[in-house]
Structure formats: structure tokens, C-alpha cells
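With this grant's support, we have settled on a layout for protein records. One resulting record is reproduced below.
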Amino acid sequence: MSTPWTTDSVGDLAGRTAVVTGANTGIGREVAAVLAAHGATVVLACRDVAKAEAAASRLTGPRTPDVVAPDVVALDLGDLASVRAAAARIRERYPRLDLLVNNAGVMWLPRQRTADGFERHLGVNHLGHFALTGLLLDRLLGTPGSRVVTLSSNGHKSGRLELDDLHFERRRYRPTAAYTQSKLANLLFTYELQRRLEAAGAAGAATIAVAAHPGGSRTDLMRHSPPQIRIATSRPFYRLLPWLIQDAAHGALPPLRAALDPAVRGGDYYGPDGWGEWTGSPVQVTSSPASHDAASQRGLWAESERLTGVEYDFTPRSPAVPSGSGHPA
């Protein structure tokens, strides 16, 4: 039986630059903390700048003298103008980018629209990240061993993508359906991005796209969940359900392994190894048949380009100024 992957497996990340969206709380904050603790320069890309700055301050201090002070960039994934401004700010500050962790998200919201008129789950969880990744792609392509890690969810397995009704204008709106569609979109995006990277000759030599899900993790994402779920995942109760709910630090292990394990390949998907993939050690897992539908992957990509106005350029870039070698770990 192989030894479970833990953060003890993470090597020296000095000289590497990582952008983590939604890093002020939950899974994103835990991912950022591990990256920073191992020497990476971490950019906390968050909608709430004050909370992000507070999170950044907790990552540095007298007990962590070797941690590079994290950077904070304002990013509202529900507003494409904000996405473009954040990408411009990151590009201005960082000529190379080793890791982009598309972590931020919303879950089980009542019907809402983004600033650009998109159904909010799709707009924040998928379209905002699609645009951000495309706008930072040249920084990734120019950095050998770089990775795009996008967080999906166990919920993608019940997701149904309706390309002709992505925003629930004809379907009856249900928060769970909107959320699971967006999480399915995260995987469709990852697999299509990896296919396009391979077609451009980038896989292995430079950039790969991978995905992960945190299982059942107790985070602020639960705040819009039904009352019975909020009770079950509250501090007094979640320790009674170790097979179903884990803390954010354990939920961060699958995306961390996807980001840092040298054995990870483009198109891999990581999640917990426990019952139903709700808790446990991070391992490679299998996503739903719907996530591997090539027509859905291509269709969603084309529609995402149309909606966001961001078209990806896979032209190979000259390697950025080296500040480390190989994969991020």
C-alpha cells in the first residue's frame, strides 16, 4: 500500500509564483498557506481585499520569518472588467507564473446575475476563471513546468450542461442544478484546455491543466446551504461525521497534490480516497462520463469565448527568466 500524499511531500518552492483565487478563506487560504510556507511567492486574488490582506498578514510574522509576504490583487470573478484589471495587475508585476489555482466559487445561491448578466454560478465558477486563465496564459506558457489547477466538486456528477440554456432562462431555476452545472463546466474546461495545450505542443514541456475536488469540506462556501446541511457541517457536529465532512486543511490536499506532485499528468483529476470521495487522502479519481464528452467540451469552450470575449492564444512563448527548475515540486 502506497504512503498517503501529505504536505510533507512538498519540496522547496522558492522562486516560484502562484496565483490562488478566493485565497482569503477556506480551501484557497489553506492552499496559499502551504505554498507560502514552502517558499513560493503567492498572489491572493480575492473579491474582498480587506479579508485577503488579513489572510496575508496571518501567513507572515515572527513565527514564519522565511515566508515571502503574499501579494493581494482585487479580483471579482463576477465582473469581467475586474477580471481584466486583475490579470493586467498580475501581468505587470510577474513576468513568469508557475501556478494558477482556480479555486474561488459560489454555491447554492438564489437566482442572481453577475455584472455581465450571466447566471452567477456559471459566471463566477467557470466564466470568470475561463477569462482569467486566458488572460494569463502567456505567463504560464513561458514558464516550464507551469500548471493550471481548477477546482471542481463531487457535485459535478449530477451536473447537466445545457449549452442552449446555460443561464436558466428557460429551465426552472434550482440552486443545486446551477451549481452542479458550473462544477461540470470546470471539468469540461480543464479537459479541453489540456487537449489544446497538447495540440499546441505545450504539454510536458511547459504547461498542463489538471483538476481537483476537496470532497466534503467545512468552509464558508456552505453559508447558502439548506439548514440541515449547515447544522451537520457546523463545528459541534462535523467531528461526528469523519467519513462525510473534513476540515479545510484536509480538503486542500487534493488541489495541492494536483499542483505540486511531479507525477501528476495533464488532464488528471484528484480527490479524497474515502467513501464516496468525501474525505480522505488525495488520490487520482475518475470524473463523470458527461465531463469527458468531447462535443460538450468544444461547445462550452466556444460559448465561453463568445461570452467573455477572451480568445486563447497558444503560441509558444520563450521561457521566462528562470527562478527554479522543472515542476512546482
Q: What stands out?
A: The radius of gyration is 18 Å. Residues 227-234, 323-329 have pLDDT under 50 and may be disordered.
